[in-house]
């Protein structure tokens, strides 16, 4: 995945609106549904994250950026419990992930959805069966009800019911992203993690996907944690942006605040030649 800001200029990229009213760090901590404190992750003798802090506020769309290989996916996987940390704590929905009981962990997993890079649909399952994987794991529903729910999820992400019986290999890139999002929404989550959701999409498809994320966030009250390299996504749907660098969150705030930040990487990302071309 390239670390370069997107070259494309979207048809209707604008500054995010509807930013939650945040009054300083105390308010952010109070409204936080994901709280990361002092998290340190390494592999062998290579330290990737060192004492990282982060809060994600209920209802916001947080864009997460950083140079290639800085650890954006590692952090997301650590939050999801797929990577071990060496130090620190992670609280999701008020539950400390180290001390939560198995039952509490199951409840937390039911309340989040994940869209991995490239969609990560099971290639041997149809779209409908993919959407039903989390339902089978967590719910006890009849096949008929799960079939109805799968069609509703497809509708939610703008796919026709006839996509239900297709295999991932029969879908376009944009349809794969939408089908993956439908699977991430299978259990009506409060929080979704999206790892580079618009990568590989053309500018019109990417703008439509951004629009979908914004609309779902608004109508379902979804909180969105989105790793992206896409400046248009950051500008059009993200309420806040976090920048990863030097093994930590270097800065977090609105796009306006990023535009004023004079850290060299942040400056070249948000005010470099490529970024300014999209203005
Ligand atoms: N399981 C692992 N074992 C060893 N090293 C790993 C492992 N997972 C990630 N890394 C290393 O951690 C570093 C950060 O990787 P990560 O995939 O999080 O970067 P990223 O910021 O998401 O990059 P990109 O924007 O290119 O996707 C890289 O140097 C990667 O090689």
UniProtKB/TrEMBL annotation:
SMART domains found in the cross-reference section: AAA
> Which family does the record assign?
Belongs to the ABC transporter superfamily.
Query: What UniProt keywords apply to this chain's record, in alphabetical order?
Result: ATP-binding, Nucleotide-binding, Transport
Please verify whether the record's keywords include Transport: yes
Supply the Gene3D superfamilies for this chain: P-loop containing nucleotide triphosphate hydrolases
Which SUPFAM superfamilies does the UniProt entry name for this protein? P-loop containing nucleoside triphosphate hydrolases
Q: Which domain of life is it from?
A: Bacteria
Indicate yes or no for the key word Metal-binding: no
Annotated segments matching region Disordered: 1-23
Its name, as the record gives it, is ABC transporter ATP-binding protein
Q: Which InterPro entries match?
A: AAA+_ATPase, ABC_transporter-like_ATP-bd, ABC_transporter-like_CS, P-loop_NTPase
**What terms describe the molecular function in GO for this protein?**
ATP binding; ATP hydrolysis activity
Organism expressing this protein natively = Roseibium limicola
Query: By its UniProt entry, which Pfam families does this protein fall under?
Result: ABC_tran
Q: Where is the ABC transporter domain?
A: 34-271
């Amino acid at each position: 995945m390239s670390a370069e800001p997107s070259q494309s200029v979207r048809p209707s990229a604008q500054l995010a609106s509807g930013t939650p009213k945040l009054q300083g760090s105390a308010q952010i901590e109070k409204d936080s549904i994901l709280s990361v404190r002092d998290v340190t992750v390494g592999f062998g003798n290579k330290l990737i994250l060192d004492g990282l802090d982060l809060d994600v506020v209920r209802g916001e769309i947080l864009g997460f950026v950083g140079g290639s290989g800085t650890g954006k996916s590692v952090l997301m996987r650590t939050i999801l419990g797929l990577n071990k940390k060496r130090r620190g704590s992670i609280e999701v929905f008020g539950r400390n992930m180290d001390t939560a009981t198995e039952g509490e962990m199951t409840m937390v997993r039911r309340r989040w959805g994940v869209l991995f890079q490239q969609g990560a649909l099971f290639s041997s399952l149809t779209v409908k069966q993919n959407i039903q994987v989390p339902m089978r794991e967590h719910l006890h529903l009849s096949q008929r009800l799960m079939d109805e729910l799968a069609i509703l999820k497809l509708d939610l992400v703008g796919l026709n019911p006839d996509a239900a019986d297709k295999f991932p290999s029969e879908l376009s890139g944009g349809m794969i992203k939408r089908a993956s999002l439908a699977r991430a929404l299978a259990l009506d989550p409060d929080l979704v993690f999206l790892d580079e959701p618009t990568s590989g999409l053309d500018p019109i498809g990417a703008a439509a996907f951004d629009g979908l994320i914004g609309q779902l966030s608004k109508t379902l009250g979804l909180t969105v944690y989105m790793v992206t390299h896409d400046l248009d996504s950051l500008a059009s749907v993200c309420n806040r942006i976090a920048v990863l660098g030097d093994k930590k969150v270097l800065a977090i705030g609105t796009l306006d605040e990023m535009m004023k930040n004079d850290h060299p990487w942040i400056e070249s990302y948000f005010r470099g030649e490529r970024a300014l071309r999209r203005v």
